């Protein structure tokens, strides 16, 4: 479910679960965590590039085979704490929990025309609870309010303005090339210590709020309103509250 390739200090981890649009199933989350652990131990890895197959980076939580909130929080924290930069490369759709992965990454680049984004939780009766841990320290407050509350889709340019993306480009690989070359030239210690400075506020959010948000997420997903919202989503119909 996660494939690995290595080239001159950069290890590329590719989400490869096309049957469910790279949704965050328990198996996918475990596979990505294991791959990141391998990268952390390997001195040949200077940085990690996180990308995807197909037209969807991640559809968010797998509603049929979900990972536990604790497991997903652990995965996001692993990305944040990894002593090597993690760079996201997006050429498709990103929804809900997939945005949590982007928030945990140090840098995120997306195709200007092919990528789009949405916090769809509000439309199924839940909230973007645990993904707020890496996202809210990075997001512009007005953008967070708009997209959390409406669930509307927005493009890569708006995602840059919101603080989700580093850059939107017509040729995402061309935009990434100088960044990856820069990471190859940086020292391992310099990268690790610079990343510690950059992620301090995000890690404080995990320390202070993770347990509360895990409990909140778990309670929302078993509520009657969420059961209706999830059923409506799976049945491709409007939920009972839609007017």
UniProtKB/TrEMBL annotation:
GO MF terms listed in the record are: catalytic activity
Protein family membership = Belongs to the enoyl-CoA hydratase/isomerase family.
| A Pfam family recorded for this sequence | ECH_1
The record's annotation in Gene3D superfamilies points to: 2-enoyl-CoA Hydratase, Chain A, domain 1 (3.90.226.10), Lyase 2-enoyl-coa Hydratase, Chain A, domain 2 (1.10.12.10)
Query: What name does this protein carry?
Result: Enoyl-CoA hydratase family protein
């Amino acid at each position: 479910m996660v494939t690995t390739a290595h080239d001159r200090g950069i290890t590329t981890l590719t989400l490869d679960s096309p049957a469910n649009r790279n949704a965050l199933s328990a198996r996918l989350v475990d596979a990505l965590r294991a791959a990141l652990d391998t990268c952390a131990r390997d001195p040949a890895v200077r940085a990690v590039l996180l990308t995807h197959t197909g037209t969807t980076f991640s559809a968010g939580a797998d509603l049929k085979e979900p990972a536990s909130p604790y497991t997903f929080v652990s995965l996001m924290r692993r990305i944040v704490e990894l002593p090597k930069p993690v760079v996201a490369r997006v050429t498709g759709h990103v929804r809900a929990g997939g945005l949590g992965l982007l928030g945990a990454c140090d840098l995120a680049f997306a195709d200007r025309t092919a990528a789009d984004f949405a916090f769809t939780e509000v439309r199924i009766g839940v909230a973007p609870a645990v993904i707020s841990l890496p996202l809210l320290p990075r997001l512009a407050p007005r953008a967070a309010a708009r997209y959390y509350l409406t669930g509307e889709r927005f493009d890569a340019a708006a995602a840059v303005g919101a603080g989700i993306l580093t850059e939107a480009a017509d040729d995402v690989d061309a935009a990434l090339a100088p960044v990856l070359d820069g990471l190859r030239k940086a020292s391992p210690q310099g990268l690790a210590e610079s990343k510690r400075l950059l992620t301090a506020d995000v890690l404080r959010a995990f320390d202070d709020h993770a347990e509360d948000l895990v409990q909140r997420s778990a309670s929302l997903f078993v509520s009657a309103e969420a059961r209706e919202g999830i059923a409506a989503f799976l049945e491709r119909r409007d939920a009972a509250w839609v007017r």
